């Protein structure tokens, strides 16, 4: 599927993104989506674009990654009349959990989902997150869901940080970037 153009969402993001130099470390320019999420028009356009991406991928369920992916994924799931799987950071869920450790651009982390109470076998899931950087978080979430029997049918993010190789790590699953 590749990168898709969403002109209204792109314009809203260009109007609202805040750029922060040297955060979280020297040489990094952090793209803060907080102002976009607080702006009703921008938020609406972002959700419409992500929902279109999930619909095009054939989503039956949305996977929202902790933490901004929760906000975005929940709104997309609501828009499409689907459920949402909250993919949590380590230690936020009671046991038993299924866990996946991974590397990210600034260290290591771990994601978890409940091992009981959700039947994900055979479900087609689109993963939603705010930013694709190195791809570690999305790859770990996909692995976690596949271990639960689900099928990851696509990925949709608001922004992509170029040059970090995240896109290549996602393999053949479709990737939609709202604001290229």
UniProtKB/TrEMBL annotation:
Gene Ontology BP, a term: adenine salvage
Q: Where is the signal peptide?
A: none
> GO CC terms on record?
cytoplasm
Q: Tell me which domain of life the UniProt entry assigns to the organism this sequence originates from.
A: Bacteria
Residue stretches making up the Phosphoribosyltransferase domain: 43-162
Record's keyword annotation contains Transferase: yes
GO MF term set: adenine binding; adenine phosphoribosyltransferase activity; AMP binding
Pfam families, per database record = Pribosyltran
Reaction(s) catalysed (UniProt annotation): AMP + diphosphate = 5-phospho-alpha-D-ribose 1-diphosphate + adenine
Q: Where in the cell is it found?
A: Cytoplasm
**What Enzyme Commission number(s) does the record list for this chain?**
2.4.2.7
- What InterPro entries does this protein map onto? Ade_phspho_trans (IPR005764), PRTase-like (IPR029057), PRTase_dom (IPR000836), UPRTase/APRTase (IPR050054)
Keywords attached to this Swiss-Prot or TrEMBL record, sorted alphabetically, are: Cytoplasm, Glycosyltransferase, Purine salvage, Transferase
**What's this protein's function?**
Catalyzes a salvage reaction resulting in the formation of AMP, that is energically less costly than de novo synthesis.
What family does the Swiss-Prot or TrEMBL record give for this protein? Belongs to the purine/pyrimidine phosphoribosyltransferase family.
Q: How does it assemble?
A: Homodimer.
Q: Which HAMAP family match?
A: Aden_phosphoribosyltr
Official protein name in the record = Adenine phosphoribosyltransferase
Taxonomic source organism: Corynebacterium lowii
What's the encoding gene here? apt
């Amino acid at each position: 599927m590749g990168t898709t153009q969403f002109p209204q969402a792109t314009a809203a993001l260009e109007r609202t993104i805040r750029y922060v130099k040297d955060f979280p470390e020297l040489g990094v320019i952090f793209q803060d989506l907080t102002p976009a999420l607080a702006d009703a028009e921008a938020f609406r356009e972002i959700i419409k674009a992500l929902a279109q991406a999930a619909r095009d991928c054939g989503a039956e369920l949305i996977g929202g990654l902790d933490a901004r992916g929760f906000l975005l994924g929940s709104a997309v799931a609501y828009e499409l009349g689907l459920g949402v799987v909250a993919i949590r950071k380590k230690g936020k869920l009671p046991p038993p959990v299924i866990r996946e450790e991974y590397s990210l651009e600034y260290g290591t982390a771990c994601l978890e989902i409940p091992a009981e109470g959700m039947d994900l076998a055979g479900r087609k899931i689109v993963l939603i997150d705010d930013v694709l950087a190195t791809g570690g978080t999305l790859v770990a979430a996909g692995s976690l869901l596949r271990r639960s029997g689900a099928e990851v049918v696509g990925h949709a993010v608001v922004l992509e940080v170029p040059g970090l190789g995240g896109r290549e790590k996602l393999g053949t699953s479709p990737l939609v970037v709202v604001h290229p």
